[in-house]
């Protein structure tokens, strides 16, 4: 098996609700093309960062990969098993091995339940052990994520913890079932800047200790640089560039990637050509024809307006979808 997770041609189209008059006039239904043909692979013990502006389809991609959202089209292999074809029951069996960490630790915790019980809960829900063992393992993992003394933390409620501590609880809860694959969706964006590095370090430790594979969603390339092995850049439902993180950050090819990097002063690199893109990301109901970035691209040529750019590998593992790199 070459990778733990292999997704091919993933699409997610959300139907837009029609008004009564649109239905009466038989106007055809419109779709939000949130994800519009994404293929990616995540190796064993590998962290792939998925970066891109708000609305590019990162969360929807992550939700499909863990089976929370059914793809409109495409295939997802996890440990060689086709996730999109599994029944609810079969999916529930796999669930402990696939977990998600969300952006807002407060919203992901139940305010009325002791944090320790919430950490233990996945073990009980999936019938992996009895209540006493679950409590023991919850105490162990609380300790492991740095929430000590764990016996004291166990008894607290979410509002009695700081934002950073809450996100550690969420991570503990995700890790307690020993998942092979985790989707972390902007896990530090709502956490105080001073605490971010230690949370990212904790995720890296789990990766090292458990050979954990991660899809790490972020709009912040500086964060991607800290945690990821590879990075995929997403624009309006598609991946436009992908490669080893250092390679993409120090040698960006797609004008969109260049613009993203130019906008991150903290990344500490000199971008040779400072590139600013204008305008907002277009509405995913009306995706521009041709290369979907052409409406904002300073290098757009005629063919970019009509033809989608092919995927071109510039080195063994660094690929880009842009006419600037095509010999055609
Ligand atoms: N359930 C839904 N119904 C309709 N449209 C949706 C739904 N979920 C997401 N979308 C739309 O799909 C597009 C992609 O959304 P998504 O949340 O995946 O983007 P994102 O890259 O995660 O953005 P952000 O950085 O803001 O979190 C957006 O235009 C969003 O409004
Ligand atoms: Mg999102």
Written account of the structure:
It contains 12 helices and 12 strands. It is an alpha/beta fold. It has a single domain, classed as Rossmann fold (3-Layer(aba) Sandwich). An 8-stranded mixed β-sheet has the order 6-7-8-3-9-10-12-11, with helices on both faces. Strands 2-1-4-5 form a 4-stranded antiparallel β-sheet, with helices on one face. α8 links the parallel β7 and β8. α4 packs across α5. It starts with a strand and ends in a 7-residue tail after the last strand. The mean pLDDT is 92.
In short:
With 328 residues, the protein is of the alpha/beta class. It is built from twelve helices and twelve strands.
List keywords for this structure.
single chain, 12 helices, 12 strands, eight-stranded mixed β-sheet, 328 residues, alpha/beta, binds adenosine-5'-triphosphate, four-stranded antiparallel β-sheet, binds magnesium ion, Rossmann fold
């Amino acid at each position: 098996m070459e990778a733990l997770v292999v997704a091919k041609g993933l699409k997610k189209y959300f139907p837009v609700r029609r008004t009564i008059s649109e239905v009466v006039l038989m106007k055809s239904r419109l779709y939000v093309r949130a994800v519009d043909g994404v293929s990616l692979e995540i190796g064993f013990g590998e962290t792939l960062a998925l970066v891109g502006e708000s609305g590019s389809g990162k969360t929807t991609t992550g939700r499909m990969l863990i089976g929370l959202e059914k793809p409109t089209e495409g295939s997802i292999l996890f440990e060689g098993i086709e996730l999109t074809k599994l029944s609810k029951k079969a999916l529930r069996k796999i669930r402990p091995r696939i977990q998600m960490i969300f952006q807002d630790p407060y919203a992901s915790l139940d305010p009325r339940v002791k944090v320790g019980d919430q950490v233990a809960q996945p073990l009980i829900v999936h019938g992996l052990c009895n209540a006493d063992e679950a409590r023991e393992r919850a105490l162990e993992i609380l300790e492991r994520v740095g929430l000590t003394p764990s016996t004291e933390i166990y008894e607290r409620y979410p509002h009695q913890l700081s934002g950073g501590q809450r996100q550690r609880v969420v991570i503990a809860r995700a890790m307690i079932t020993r998942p092979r694959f985790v989707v972390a969706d902007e896990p530090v964006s709502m956490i105080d800047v001073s605490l971010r590095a230690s949370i990212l370090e904790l995720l890296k430790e789990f990766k090292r200790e458990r050979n954990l594979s991660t899809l790490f969603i972020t709009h912040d390339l500086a964060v991607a640089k800290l945690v990821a092995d590879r990075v995929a850049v997403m624009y309006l439902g598609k991946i436009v560039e992908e490669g080893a993180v250092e390679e993409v950050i120090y040698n960006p090819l797609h004008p969109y990637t260049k613009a993203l990097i130019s906008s991150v002063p903290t990344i500490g690199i000199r971008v040779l050509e400072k590139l600013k893109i204008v305008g907002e990301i277009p509405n995913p109901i009306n995706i521009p024809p041709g290369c979907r970035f052409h409406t904002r691209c300073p290098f757009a040529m005629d063919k970019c307006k009509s033809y989608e750019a092919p995927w071109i590998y510039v080195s063994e593992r660094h690929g880009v979808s842009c006419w600037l790199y095509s010999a055609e």
